[in-house]
Design a protein that fits this description.
Distance between the termini: 33 Å
Strand order of the largest sheet: 11-10-9-8-13-12
Radius of gyration: 19 Å
Number of domains: 2
CATH superfamily of the largest domain: RimM
Number of helices: 2
Helix content: under 10%
Order of helices and strands: EEEEEEHEHEEEEEE
CATH architecture of the largest domain: Beta Barrel
Structural class: mainly beta
Shape: elongated
CATH class of the largest domain: Mainly Beta
CATH topology of the largest domain: Elongation Factor Tu (Ef-tu), domain 3
């Protein structure tokens, strides 16, 4: 069973602009099946102070269109713009493939090289369009480096063991 921090939450969607005049919003889903965003129970704001219930969802050209419970007009819908929606990690299914990971499961893992030497810990996962990058905080805690999250650079991910094994790139980590 994977190690999942109790307070771990995953961003599954972001609300975009209002859509029409009846309170619908554009919704950008980050789930593998975009329509599955409604299957994980109530969604919450990043700080957990606002619950959002999606009453209806339909595909549109480049996003989804959602009707949110309690939102009945364009002005109320506009106030939701850019609200990121989260669910507790425990509500999400385990990844079906051994090579799939939730970002929340990777953050906090120790980073060691193939000889077992400590290189730091994963503090974030980024994707700027060319693939995932692990942001690794170096020992000492002040500097970070970006590492491609590829099979060549990261040959092993051991969620249960709390670590990722890297093939230490020349010059990126001090020996």
């Amino acid at each position: 069973m994977a190690r999942v921090p109790e307070n771990s939450r995953v961003c599954v969607a972001r609300i975009g602009a209002a859509h029409g005049i009846r309170g619908e919003v554009k919704l950008f889903s980050f789930t593998s099946d975009p329509l599955a965003v409604t299957t994980y129970g109530p969604l919450e704001s990043a700080d957990g102070t606002r619950a959002v219930e999606i009453e209806a969802l339909r595909p549109a050209k480049d996003c989804l269109v959602a009707r949110v419970k309690g939102i009945a007009d364009r002005a109320a819908a506009e106030r939701l713009r850019n609200l990121e929606l989260f669910v507790p990690r425990a509500r999400l299914p385990q990844p079906a493939d051994d090579d799939e990971f939730y970002h929340a499961d990777l953050i906090g893992l120790a980073v060691v090289d193939t000889q077992g030497a400590a290189c730091g810990k994963v503090v974030a996962v980024h994707n700027f369009g060319a693939g995932d990058l692990l942001e690794v905080q170096l020992p000492g805690g002040s500097d970070t480096v970006m590492l491609p999250f590829t099979a060549a650079a990261v040959p092993q991910v051991d969620i249960a063991g709390g670590r990722v094994v890297i093939d230490r790139p020349q010059g990126l980590f001090k020996a």
